Amino acid sequence: MTHFTKGEFVLEYRGELINSLESNRRHRVYHNNLKGFMFDFIWHDKFWTIDAARDDGTLGRLVNDDHINPNCKMKRIIVKGKPHLCLFALRDITPLEEATYNYGNADCPWRSKWTKYGMDTDTNRLESGGTSGDVTQCTQHSQQKSASHIHVTESGIEVDSNCLESDVASGDDHHCTQHSQHESSFCNQAWNCFFNVFYNIVNVKSPQCTLHYTSVFKDTGSPHCLLT
Ligand SMILES: C[S@@+](CC[C@H](N)C(=O)[O-])C[C@H]1O[C@@H](n2cnc3c(N)ncnc32)[C@H](O)[C@@H]1O
């Protein structure tokens, strides 16, 4: 059984890196469903967005929010001067478990539940959901309600991270920035972890392991991703 161990690189949230000007433009023109794929973050004191609205077959864009008990967290890693958003396992992830991360304190409509008295927003959980050092997703524009899932199954994982692969393989200098107080220690740890784990995944695991986007449709009608 393949599983992810705590601290292991899981996958990259891939998409188009755009600046705030272009991001604002797309926020204006995109349908709400597409806005949910825009991951806004701060880098070098500026707002940037990874726009994963286009379905390029990669899996990072399909990982759902869990602000209560996520098993992954998003980290920003700088490779060749460009930020990449990568998910790392917060704890061991077992086969068939859905991969999730905390989108942050964004106004996520699915976190509210209807009661007989009306909408009940779980504010306490929202406040405690963020962890210092995490990169969190700004999803305040999204009204999309679908729920794709990424699960771990028996055989393993293949990570579609071409740019990461080539960057890692190049052995070039890199620097990491993380907008938190724990910047430098995280950077070193994350990069080491990232390098080792990614190398491990690509070079060791992939012959037996494939991360599949399946055509399994469950109750939500959304496609689900299985690690098989
Ligand atoms: C980056 S996409 C995640 C993949 C998406 N679920 C799909 O099927 O394509 C973000 C969008 O997924 C949906 N989503 C994420 N987490 C969710 C959750 N816990 N419950 C319901 N919908 C969620 C929201 O519509 C959000 O805008």
UniProtKB/TrEMBL annotation:
InterPro entries: KMT5A, SET_dom, SET_dom_sf. PROSITE patterns: SET (PS50280). One of its GO terms (molecular function) is histone H4K20 methyltransferase activity. It holds the Pfam family SET. GO terms for biological process: regulation of DNA damage response, signal transduction by p53 class mediator; regulation of transcription by RNA polymerase II. Residues 1-104 form the SET domain. One of its GO terms (cellular component) is nucleus. Gene3D superfamilies: SET domain. Coiled coil: none annotated. This is Uncharacterized protein LOC128634287 isoform X1.
